[in-house]
Structures are given as structure tokens and as C-alpha cells.
Amino acid sequence: MSCMLFARTVAMRISGTRRLFSSNVTNDLKRSKFYINVEKTNEAYLRYSIDVNHNVINLEHTFVPDAGKGKGIGKMLAQAAFQYAIEHNLKVKLECDFTVKYYRDNETKYKEYVLQ
Q1: Residue 30: φ, ψ to 5°
Q2: CA-CA distance, 106 to 100, in Å (whole number)?
Q3: What's CA 19's distance to the chain center, in Å?
Q4: Is residue 7 over pLDDT 90?
Q5: Quick one: residue 89, left, alpha or beta (phi over 0 = left, psi -120 to 50 = alpha)?
Q6: pTM of the model
Q7: Model confidence at 96: pLDDT above 60
Q8: Which of 18, 19, 22, 17 is nearest to 7 (CA)?
Q9: pLDDT confidence band for 78 (50 / 70 / 90)
Q10: I need a labelling partner for 32 at 20 to 30 A (CA). Which of 43, 64, 83, 110 fits?
């Protein structure tokens, strides 16, 4: 999938989930995770929590099963999380090593949104 296609993501709210259609990333609000189904029984995910008192989304843990490694799935999850934070005026707290790396690779784009 091209970065251009992902950049034009169309979002739609569906009963407790938010699906980003161009990347197949779903935000499961009840389970507090962005996920992508990699296989019928496996999902890649980025788990988060939201501190509503401080308008902060904590990006806690990213997991990609072996079948999805090396395919840019972690980057899609991180990009979806940052996009969600921006759309909802949330600051981002990076607790996950993968999201720290993703942020460093995209610092100019996201610097104003990340708590230092």
C-alpha cells in the first residue's frame, strides 16, 4: 500500500470501533487498541490508554505477529494512533519502544503533538 493512499484515509465511526479503511487499521475503543488482522486468528496491535483529565493518549505496547513482520504493519498502527491523537486534540505520550522509533523517524511531522 502506498503512503499516498494511507494519507488519504477515510474514517468512519461504527458502533464502538473506528475503521481506517485504506489501511485496514481499526481502533477498538472498548479494548483500547488499534489493530490489523494479520491472519484469521492473529492480530497486530498497538495498545493505548487515554488520560481524559490531561488530554493525553499513552501509546503503551505494539505487537506484530511473525506472519506480519517486515510488512510495515507497525508503522501503519503508529500512524493511525498519531492521526487519531491529532483529530481528537490529544497529546501523545510514548511508552512503547516501537512508537518512540516511529516518532524519531517522523519527528518533524509529529513534534508538536508529543509530550517531552
Answers
A1: -70, -35
A2: 10
A3: 11
A4: no
A5: left
A6: 0.80
A7: yes
A8: 22
A9: very high
A10: 110
The amino acid occupying position 88 is H
Place of cell 501503519: 76
Closest listed residue to residue 3, CA positions, set 63, 69, 75, 70 = 75
What is the distance between the alpha carbons of residues 69 and 29, in angstroms, rounded to a whole number? 25
Full DSSP string of the chain: --HHHHHT--EEEETTEEEETTTTEEEETTTTEEEEE-SSS-EEEEEEEEETTTTEEEEEEEE--GGGTTTTHHHHHHHHHHHHHHHTT-EEEE-SHHHHHHHHHTHHHHGGGB--
Which residues fall within 8 angstroms of residue 92, CB to CB, at 6 or more apart?
56, 57, 59, 81, 82, 85, 103, 110, 113, 114, 115
Q: How many residues would you count in the chain?
A: 116
